[in-house]
Amino acid sequence: MVFRMETSIEGVAAGPGGPATPAGTRAPAEPTATAVATATATATAGDEGAETPVPVPAAKAPSSLSPSRAGDFMQCPLLYRFRVIDRLPQKPSEAATRGTLVHAVLERLFDAPAAERTPPRAKALVPGQWDRLRETRPEVEELFADDPEGERLARWLSEAERLVERWFTLEDPSRLEPAERELFVETELESGLRLRGIIDRVDVAPTGEVRIVDYKTGKAPRPEYSEGALFQMKFYALVVWRLKKVVPRRLQLVYLGSGDVLTYDPVVADLERVERKLLALWEAIRLATETGQWRPRPTKLCGWCDHQAHCPEFGGTPPPYPLPVTVAGLDTTRP
Question: Which of 24, 81, 126, 210 is most buried, taking the most CB atoms under 10 A from its CB?
Fold first, then answer.
């Protein structure tokens, strides 16, 4: 991972000063493995462009943790199992696919010279990026299979254009030269836990200060849920800190759905708390993997779950557990 140090950070103070914790932000309590396993989903709040798991032939025990998969387990351990262990297929959704499209447009816009990063140019990228998405992920074609006249598709693309256009009211891309875009990061903690993820944008000031930026095509959460929304960003900050020995100066969430920007300036103590939380979370995942006990956690989010047919809460039956489980110290096969 390389940060080019000549780039600039728009709107971020050059010096290391400033408040470590914004007013009204409360540090999370230290969780136990059990508490984390039953926590509410936070990592993917408002993120319509969240990663989609790709099915593979053989099931494998989890070997790493990303913000999205951490969010799955905190939302519902059984959901985590369905996505990570069983790799059950998921239907594409209009909201998530639109998020992927908008992310691609914002990434590609920075290929143009600064003076040419305008709303018309950004909107003009939408059709081409949609065609590219259809080529790389043919399954998205089914979203509009029942739209022979293309009217619903046209509205959907127009909404993507509006989200792209709104971004220009929140940031000025002509003043930005990102050090990295769609940056894959991965690190292994001393405990052996491997953390990985993809950061939408990294800005680096001439003084070396780092800003991590993430685009959200949904709406900003209410203030009482802002801590949960920042979980993903603190996860990324932890990875960057462990990789580069630099604590990011600022974490920034750009909500295109509502036109809001949420920022947070982390300190080492924040990242240490996140690391402890992730270690507790990983211990809970490890225990569930070994015992085969993945409990459902019903919430209002169940209404959007693709896996109701396999969920006991909806009268379904999970598929046979594909991994060996440990019972009283013996390796057996869970039926």
Answer: 81
